[in-house]
Each structure stands twice: as C-alpha cells, then as structure tokens.
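Protocol step 4 of 5: obtain the predicted structure for the target chain.
Materials: sequence only (see below). No template structures provided, no constraints applied. The aim of this step is simply to have a reference model before the mutagenesis design in step 5. Sequence pasted as it appears in the construct record:
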Amino acid sequence: MEQARRAARQSDLHAAVTSIRAAREVTPEKLDNRLHTSLWLLEGMLYRLQGAEERAQNAWKKARSIAATVTMRHPLHLIDSILLHSLTQGWNRETLGDVLTTFASRHLGKEDRPAVQITIHRTFLTDPAWISTFNAVLQSEEGRKFAQDYTLCLDPPRELVLRFYRMLFEHHFLSTAFPGHARAHHPCPPDRGPARHRNDHEPTWRDRAPLRLPPRLERCICRQHPFRSTYPYSPALIENLRWLLKQRQR
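Step 4 output (structure tokens):
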C-alpha cells in the first residue's frame, strides 16, 4: 500500500492503482479486513484524482461495508471509518453513536463506557447539526484537500487528526451561529434538508443539561488520550522521526 501512496504522490496514478490491485490479491488469511478497508479508501481517492467520482464513491462504500465487519478496531482504523462515512455522506444517528462511542471509549473499562455513551448522546446525537456537519465537512474544497492529504499520508497522522477536529468544530460553529455561511460553503446533499429543519421532534443543543463525567473517568481519559499535548519523548527523537517521515514521502 505504501508503494501505491508513493506512486500517487508522484502523480503516477496508473502505477498506484496497479499496486493497490496487486496488494488485494494477497490471500485472505494474510490480509485482514482492516487493511482491506484502507486499500479501498486509497483506491477510491485514486479514482477521484482521475476524475472518476462515481467509481470513487463505490470504492468508499465498499470500504464502509468491510469496515463494519471489523471487531478489533484500532484508532487509525476508526479514523478511516469516520472519513469513509463523511466522504460518502453516510452518517446518521445510529452510525454516529456507534463509531464515536467506540472511538471515545476504546481505552476504558466496561464500567466506564456507559458514561461515555451518555456524553456522546447528549453532545452529538441530540443536535441534528452535528450529523449534518459530519456529512458535509469533506464536501468543500478544504475538505476534499484534507481527504487527499490523509489518504496519501502527506502529513503526520497526529497533525491530520487535529486538522480534522478543527474542521469539524469550525463547520459546526458556522452552521449553527451563521447558517447561511455554512450552507454557502458546505451545501446539503440533495436528499437531505438543512439540519435545523430535520428531526424537529428531537431535543436541540439548547435543551441539553450540562453533563460532567465521573472524576475517575475524566482522569482516565486525560491519562490515556492519544493526542494529549505532553509527551515523554525527547525533542531530538521527534526531529529525527520527522526527518525520516519526510525521506519516506520523497
């Protein structure tokens, strides 16, 4: 798969697609569905770069169906799943609750997971604007550029994830505080109306009472969060790894 990314970064899309198809010919016992998901995600992006958007969407939908069968879902696979749902505009209350709850509680014990489910429900599922945001965030020019950078690994994973977080919250803020601005930059798909006109029977963000997690759970999340800002690594090691990453991307 790395050969396909390298060829795509060099604008050799034909060689990239050939490498993807060769990787997929590996026997199933040597290629689990997490890697299959990543392969179809990358292949879809190669089709988009060739101007074949319908083939890209079909590849991403195939990746989504494969991702749904994965039981051991590590963080990068979950990020792949989040992007696939946004690329295909496949988010709804069920998928948002399942994927986000799994992502947020992957390091927690069973006794702490119900609190995470409550938080996800009150934060995301009771506000239809969040579903609209997740479906629309990768449809703009900025979103399409981000999807390409992520799929071809043009930036370090941590920077890409933080960039995606920023795009999500920026879109949600604009869509709720300045609805006209958000619709102009991220139009709703044809089969969906603006978020504020859908699910009127559901409580909105204004109806939600503030929720605090149990102190033990908050400490657990802060201790285990993979993107916290402090690391026990030396600056020299980080600089060396950055140099190595740049060498691989040449």
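Step 4 remarks: Residues 5 and 153 are 8 Å apart (CA to CA). Confidence is low (pLDDT under 50) at residues 188-211, 221-229.
Proceed to step 5.
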